[in-house]
Design a protein that fits this description.
With 105 residues, the chain is mainly α. The chain has one domain. Helices cover 81% and strands 0% of the residues.
């Protein structure tokens, strides 16, 4: 599973940033324009709503599970939310898997 989580971390970073980087280069951090375009159509509003709810759920899970297991650096995937849940969740699962492998049962 660590290999799968690593591949998902890479895909979860590269795919979203490949879409965002050209927009950022063209517009800079124009937050009003970002929000306007994110909500421009029902489909884009649907996608962003899904990402925001998924991000909140991932953040809650990361904090609760990381603390419950006594993981070191459980907070690191929270930084991954800057890219999105597509990075944060597989990164947390990778760190969790490694923690569980090191911890005696």
């Amino acid at each position: 599973m660590p290999l799968v989580y690593t591949v998902l971390c890479i895909a979860g970073t590269v795919l979203p940033l490949a879409q965002f980087a050209p927009w950022l280069a063209a517009h800079g951090l124009d937050m009003p324009l970002l929000v306007q375009q994110a909500l421009a159509t029902p489909l884009s509003a649907f996608a962003w709503s899904d990402v925001l709810v998924s991000g909140a759920a991932a953040a809650i899970f990361i904090v609760a599970e990381g603390r419950r297991l006594g993981m070191r650096r459980w907070w690191l995937p929270l930084l991954g939310l800057g890219v999105g849940p597509s990075l944060a969740l597989p990164l947390f699962l990778l760190l969790r898997e490694r923690h569980l492998q090191r911890t005696p049962a």
